[in-house]
Each structure stands twice: as structure tokens, then as C-alpha cells.
Amino acid sequence: MPDFFRGRRLRRTPGIRELIRETEIRPQDLIQPYFVVETEDKNFAREVPSMPGQYQLSTSRLLDKIGQAVDKGLKSLILFGIPEHKDEVASQAYAENGIIQQAVRAIKDKYPRLVVITDVCLCEYTSHGHCGLIKEKYVQNDPTLKLLAKTALSHAKAGADMVAPSDMMDGRVQAIRTILDENGFFELPIMSYAVKYASSFYGPFRDAAQSAPQFGDRKSYQMDPANSVEAMREAQADVNEGADIIMVKPALPYLDIVRKIKDNFFVPVAAYQVSGEYSLIKAAAAKGWVDEKSIVLESLISIKRAGADLILSYFTEQVLEWL
Ligand code: PBG
Q1: Domain map of the chain by residue range?
Q2: Which CATH superfamily is domain 25-322 in?
Q3: FRET partner for 235 with CA separation of 20 to 30 A, picked from 7, 101, 191, 222?
Q4: How far does the centroid of ligand 1 lie from the alpha carbon of residue 13, in Å?
């Protein structure tokens, strides 16, 4: 009898390694985030300084960009809007002709088969940069729900294939499910940012979306990074309220949470490899300290192996080229 395990037997050749590989990244697993700007300038394109390779784009430039990505195999995207005017009540978030509503119509018109997901939140549209209505410097939960629901409905009417609430108000999945159903959108899925941590990894995104809070922080609504039992409660609540897909965000620092959600709920699990995760890799790669391609593919494989069925990643376009 052999007296020790020879793991190397199944690592000997590329062919054998491939034969036993458990996890794979497929183009249809990946969702590319895009930032669309409301502007008169049809040619507007601005690279986000802290996110090299990611852009704020006018609708027409975005359509070009999406066209190129579709040629590489892009199946799905999530949209974030940057409105021309912000106010206390985020009116441009639910305006019929708001930037997201316009962009969704344009994208669906040109690429009807693409899965267009919209981020539902108020922070890009409020003058104070918080994800809900403010009273006495505190984000008000219940009054915000009505606006989130209106926002989701306006996205649905514009033709979105799925809405993704990222605000972390309690009860928002129920509010959104209710208004969608009342308006006949029974079969429009909700991908809930159910487990969203108050993370420093969102820093570069707030540059890109111009959504940094003008005072305070988001800790009274986003989760404490130290907690995991609470993540289960959040996921449970959202599943009960009608969420179809549960998201964990950020991804790589929270793989334990991804796995726990995967094992405990019978819904597809999404993970968001957020802006800070992107920028860290980009910065180190630009310095020549890490190999970008292999480190990106390794991170994505790890996120999938942990239990994510879908991954939102700024590397999507790039990975489609590599696959
Ligand atoms: C909006 C929202 C944020 C992100 C997605 N939706 C920022 C935040 O909560 O401050 C972060 C995405 C990223 O960092 O890539 N609430």
C-alpha cells in the first residue's frame, strides 16, 4: 500500500489539471458596471482617475462602448447614473426622462437581448449624497421607501430587465416588489444588495458616481464589516420580501459570507467585486508588482468557488477578451 497521498498525480499535465478543474468563469456569469452621465456633450467621456480603464460616458458614447463589449461576448450590465441636477429628494432618480431611464431605453432599443440591470439608489441623485431622505442629519427609512419604489418602477417602465436596490433601507425589497406587481411587472426580478457592508472599498466608486456623502457616513444603514450573523438576517429578510437574487458586497474580503449565503438560501448568489478591489489590483499591476491577468482570473475564480453564481466586476470587459 502507498503510504502517502500523491496529489501531484492529478497536477502532472495541463490536460489532467483541466480534466479535474472544479470551477470555471463563464462570460454569462459576469456583469459589467457602467457609469452614464447626463450631459449636452454627446461625446463626453472621462476616465475615472482612481479607476483606470473605467469611464463616465454620455449615453451615445456608452452605446459605442457596449457595442464593442457585446462583440466580445458581454451578456449583462448594471447601470449607474450621474444626473445633471441633484436635490434633497433625488427627483432625477425617478424622473421619467432621467439619465438612467433614457439610457435604458437607448440600450434596450439597440441591444434587446442584453440583460440590462439598474442600480436602484438615491445617493447619486441627492445633494447630500446619502442613500435616503434626510431629517436632522439622519437618513429616514420609511419615507425613503416610497422614492425607491418609484425609482424602480420608472426603470421597469423604461425597459430594465432587472432592478438592483443598493440603498440598504429596511423594507425596500417589499416596497419595490409591491409597486412592480401593482403595475403588472410581476416577472421583473429583483437582485437585492442584501448584504452590503459599510466598506472602505467603495472609495473609488464615489469618485466615479460622484456620490460621496456630504456629511457623516453610511454606517447607520450599511452593515458593520465585523458581522456575519446579521448578514444571514438581512438575506432572510430580503428573500422573504421577494428578492430573486441575493448579493454580497464587497466580494473578496467577504468570501466567508458568500459561502454562508450559498449554503443557507436556495437563491442565486451574486457577489460584487467593488471599485476598491478593482483599483488595488490596477495600481499594483501598473507598478509591475503583480501580474494583472492572472491575479484578476484568480480573484474571480475564488469568488465563484466561494459560492457566487454571478459576479459584478469592472474587469468584465477585459476578462471577456481573455476567455
Ligand atoms: C450606491 C452604491 C455604491 C456602490 C454600488 N451602489 C456606493 C456606496 O454605497 O457608497 C459601490 C460600488 C463599488 O464600490 O464599486 N449606494
Answers
A1: 25-322
A2: Aldolase class I (3.20.20.70)
A3: 101
A4: 42
